[in-house]
Write a structure and sequence with these properties.
alpha/beta; Rossmann fold; six-stranded mixed sheet; four-stranded antiparallel sheet; 10 strands; binds adenosine-5'-triphosphate; ATP hydrolysis activity; translocase
């Protein structure tokens, strides 16, 4: 199965003997947000991390199956994972800005990938901060430490950093779960803006958030995808009883 967007085909992921992801196939459309939901331990984060090979950084992980983007299977040997993670960026649960200035957090990626001219870097920094709704709050302190920002601002900075290298897909692992309600709302607004340009895959425990931000939802249970459909359908008329039980709070 070759696709131009991002897709997983018969993907299984093992931690030693334990099969955490069992033969999952899912395709993600450009300019759509897909939410991955399911009870704790069902494999959402493992699946998300496999989409840009972040599981490679965990010892003892073995992956079977294919992940396609732009007609390339990223699980083939010889794939440049730095370029891969430029194409498929990641935002983590806890904001993790570099211990550098706001400016440098964003300029780092483009500079690494060859942008040298200051004017061009300045433009990228401004554009990414504007897209992340952070420009007004930071334009007078670009060279101050990113660590002096609030948690919510740091998370938006991490999103700005991820788009600075012009990815096609942004993976988000519970990006708002460590934030207060106002910061959470800002991150959700940002997701709605960003999906005009990117495909976004988001893990969330928050059913309301999944319903608010996503176009499609995949319900994971015990390492498998039980149901994958339009979010409206999943939340109003799911076809599987397990999905219904989960979204109505009967387990998980
Ligand atoms: N580094 C690891 N080593 C061994 N087993 C792991 C590791 N990470 C996750 N697992 C196991 O794999 C399964 C899936 O975990 P994963 O974190 O992907 O689930 P999740 O749905 O994201 O859970 P949560 O919602 O609690 O974050 C679980 O049984 C978990 O214990």
């Amino acid at each position: 199965m070759q696709q131009t967007g991002l897709s997983a085909s018969n993907l299984s992921v093992f931690y030693g003997e334990k099969e955490a992801i069992k033969n999952v196939s899912l395709a993600f459309s450009p300019r759509e947000v897909t939410a991955l939901i399911g009870p704790s331990g069902c494999g959402k984060s493992t699946f998300l991390r496999s989409l840009n090979r972040m599981n490679d950084t965990i010892g003892g992980v073995r992956t079977k199956g294919e992940i396609w983007i732009d007609g390339e299977n990223i699980n083939e040997p010889g794939v440049d994972v730095v370029l891969l993670r430029q194409k498929i960026g990641m935002v983590w649960q806890r904001p993790n800005p570099f211990h550098k200035s706001i400016y440098e957090n964003i300029a780092f990626g483009p500079r690494y990938h060859g942008v040298r001219k200051k004017k061009q870097l300045d433009e990228i920094v401004e554009e990414c901060l504007r897209k992340s709704a952070l420009w007004e709050e930071t334009k007078d302190r670009l060279h101050s430490s990113a660590l002096a920002l609030s948690g919510g601002q740091q998370q938006r900075l991490c999103i700005a950093r991820s788009i600075a290298v012009k990815p096609k897909v942004i993976l988000m692992d519970e990006p708002a779960s460590a934030l207060d309600p106002v910061s959470t709302a800002k991150v959700e607004e940002l997701i709605a803006e960003l999906k005009q340009d990117y495909s976004i895959v988001i893990v969330t425990h928050n059913m309301h958030q999944a319903a608010r931000v996503s176009d499609k939802t995949a319900f994971f249970y015990m390492g498998k995808v039980v149901e994958y459909d339009k979010t409206d359908k999943i939340f109003t008329n799911p076809s599987q009883k397990a999905t219904d039980d989960y979204i109505s709070g009967r387990f998980g």
